[in-house]
Design brief:
The chain is mainly beta. The chain has one helix and twelve strands; from the N terminus they run E-H-E-E-E-E-E-E-E-E-E-E-E.
Length: about 230
């Protein structure tokens, strides 16, 4: 049994922008100007992007964002990815993240904890954590998690830093995976020492409940005109 956790990230704008009493930019004017990424969970060439024709969804697919507990190389098992997105839109628009949805499938044996963390910023020093999903084994089922995020003026993409003629908004995403033994867990030798030969540790993996294979992240966006 392969123990992996893969990620598929979808960023979209929907009802929250109506709740803010604003309209979104024309779909034809919204797109991904560029993307760059680095980290143990996203080696070069492993991330693909697409944006829906109506500009309501942007998808990032991580082909090699996996954690394999069967290697027993040491606990905890961690991987991460830092992503820089340049989102193109009309002049005078800015956006903010107002919600995150995560769904998928997990199979974690007793004694294993799986944690996903998501954070973002708009190029500022402070990075805001927007969601943290923690699943404790034994667990073998589909899962879904939703997090609402409050809005504040300091949480909107900046207005004054857009390039003339081709306005872009810079967004930084940080995604991390951590699979580790539950606190207080002891292995078959009773000492929870992964360096000991012959030690048997519990295993765990996660995958999406769709044909792509991965965890689905949806980041709800709200648009407004610059103030």
């Amino acid at each position: 049994m392969r123990k992996i956790l893969l990620l598929v990230t979808t960023i979209f704008s929907s009802s929250p922008l109506h709740a803010q009493g604003a309209a979104s930019p024309p779909p034809a004017q919204v797109g991904i100007a560029s993307i760059s990424y680095r980290g143990s969970g996203c080696p070069p060439g492993s991330v693909a992007t697409s944006i829906a024709p109506d500009a309501q969804a942007m998808t990032l697919i991580f082909a090699q964002f996996g954690v394999d507990t069967s290697t027993r190389a040491g606990w905890p098992m961690r991987k991460g990815c830092n992503i820089e997105l340049m989102l193109r839109s009309l002049p005078g628009w800015q956006y903010s993240v107002v919600g995150v949805d995560i769904r998928g499938y997990a199979n974690l044996e007793a004694g294993v904890v799986g944690v996903q963390k998501v954070a973002y910023s708009f190029g500022r020093p402070n990075v805001r954590a927007v969601d943290r999903l923690r699943i404790v084994g034994p667990f073998n089922d589909n899962f879904a998690n939703h997090a609402d995020i409050g809005l504040g003026d300091n949480e909107w993409s900046p207005c004054g830093r857009q390039s003339p003629g081709t306005p872009v908004n810079r967004m930084l995403l940080r995604v991390a995976i951590n699979v580790r033994p539950q606190r207080g867990f002891t292995d078959d030798d009773g000492d929870n020492d992964p360096s000991r030969r012959g030690t048997v540790f519990p295993s765990g993996y996660m995958t999406v409940d769709a044909v792509d294979g991965g965890i689905v992240h949806r980041y709800q966006l709200a648009w407004r005109r610059c103030r």
